Amino acid sequence: MTETILPTPSHTVGPFYGYALPFPEGEQIAPKGHPDTIVLHGYVLDGHGDPVPDALLEFWQAAPDRSLAGAPGSLRRNPVTGGFLGRNGTDFTGFGRVATDADGHYALHTLQPGTAGVPYISVCVFARGLLHHLFTRAYLADGTDPLLDSVERERRATLIARPGENRAYRFDIRLQGEGETVFLEFP
Amino acid sequence: MTHTQSDIDTAIDELQNAYDEALAAGAPARHHPRRDYAPYRSSLLRHPKQPLVPVHGGDPETVELSGPVFGPTDITETDNDLTVQHQGEPLGERITVSGRLLDRAGHPVRGQLIELWQANASGRYAHLRDQHPAPLDPNFTGVGRTLTDGEGRYTFTTIKPGAYPWRNHTNAWRPAHIHFSVFGTAFTQRLVTQMYFPNDPLFPYDPILRSVTDRAARERLVAAYRHDLSRPEFSLGYEWDIVLDGPSATWIEEGH
């Protein structure tokens, strides 16, 4: 495949996406009540260490059976009212979308991705002030992994979510400054 | 410190000149905005200072080479017509916006989700944080969704949004624009951007548009008026193709 046409430039998501992009149950990738549900959560912080209350995070991951095929139905709409029905409780779409709270916090409810290697959830960060989104990964464990092993030792920990109580994993995203999260490119 | 338009213009020009000189000296064209673009003041504390870390292909389990999928359950039949979502007709100039979603090889991207949001004809968003003194329109929210068809085409019916003031600096105004959110076949192709209208006199003053320092790339953000997309007695037509960047699984399979 050759590159024949040039890409459309990115722009910031701006401050006003809040009535357009977030949707009910965007944070619920796991089927409701699933006993293996884990929570990935944390804060998005700016270069002063202040919380970012208007970030939008998207998550994409493998299903527990390692499938990367995904499934429709993340937004499942109500054709009668134009509203949202919520996810159907059986399909694993692999996609989540969560806006940070007023305190810069987010929480994603999902299932462990299946993989032969170290499991991770891909994260895409949008925010007012961010002219081009940023990719990172939330690894749910440490271990031998091509990306983790390519990162300098002192920054590696920024890619690894810290397990806590009640199957919760803490994963903060620091956009700038001390402890700046490792962000990725796909050349 | 409050910045004037003149302060911002100076900063924009410096960065434009630096880019133009680098390009003339043989540097590659830069298709996307740099994240550390000081004239857009909100960017100051919200861009990483460390270089991005490359993820190289070759690992078939690289999650980002696949991406979320959407289907008919994720939209409703009227989602792509922003003028029929309320009891009455919205105020403003009715427009049809249509184009194709393509990858870098020019292949159509079919069945993918396109979302858009925008201000109303007066330049006001249906958002609590937008409190500038322009009227809300009870018949216009400004949110639409659609799936691309078999040719990768999308079509929206909406209202031409108004320009609006913002607080980047004194007397800052955004040119009229529509926000777009687009998915490709791979998460790496994810794109959020803004579409502009031709010949807007606010273009040179806007630090968000000017953050794209490549002139040809900026032009790709501007829709074209297309008379054959205009519908008699109904709407004016604009065409805007969207080209997704980033590798996908098919890209890797074909040997890149």
From TrEMBL, chain A:
Keywords: Dioxygenase, Oxidoreductase. InterPro entries: Intradiol_dOase_C, Intradiol_dOase_core, Intradiol_RC_Dioxygenase, Protocat_dOase_a. Transmembrane segments: none annotated. GO terms for molecular function: ferric iron binding; protocatechuate 3,4-dioxygenase activity. The gene is pcaG. This is Protocatechuate 3,4-dioxygenase subunit alpha. SUPFAM superfamilies: Aromatic compound dioxygenase (SSF49482). Residues 25-119 form the Intradiol ring-cleavage dioxygenases domain. Its EC number is 1.13.11.3.
TrEMBL record, chain B:
Its EC number is 1.13.11.3. It is an enzyme of class 1 (oxidoreductase). GO terms for biological process: 3,4-dihydroxybenzoate catabolic process. The keyword Oxidoreductase applies. InterPro entries: Intradiol_dOase_C (IPR000627), Intradiol_dOase_core (IPR015889), Intradiol_RC_Dioxygenase (IPR050770), PCDO_beta_N (IPR024756), Protocat_dOase_b (IPR012785). It comes from Streptomyces typhae. This is Protocatechuate 3,4-dioxygenase subunit beta. The keyword Signal does not apply. One of its GO terms (molecular function) is protocatechuate 3,4-dioxygenase activity. Keywords: Dioxygenase, Oxidoreductase. Residues 97-125 form the Intradiol ring-cleavage dioxygenases domain. Belongs to the intradiol ring-cleavage dioxygenase family.
